[in-house]
Amino acid sequence: MVGDRTSYIEAASHNGGISIGVTYGFGKDEVSLANYVANTLQEVEKLVTDITI
Fold this sequence. Notes:
Radius of gyration: 10 Å
Protein name: Phosphoglycolate phosphatase
Helix content: 25-40%
Distance between the termini: 13 Å
Strand order of the largest sheet: 1-2-3
């Protein structure tokens, strides 16, 4: 799950998913607990491509 809020990160965790916190949204300071952190949409794309579940 990709998001900029703690609630997105928690939802991913509670459902066995992987979280990518983004620093370019409203909750940019809330992403420190995410599995991965991206600063740009291009970084999100690379992470999604590289992550193997």
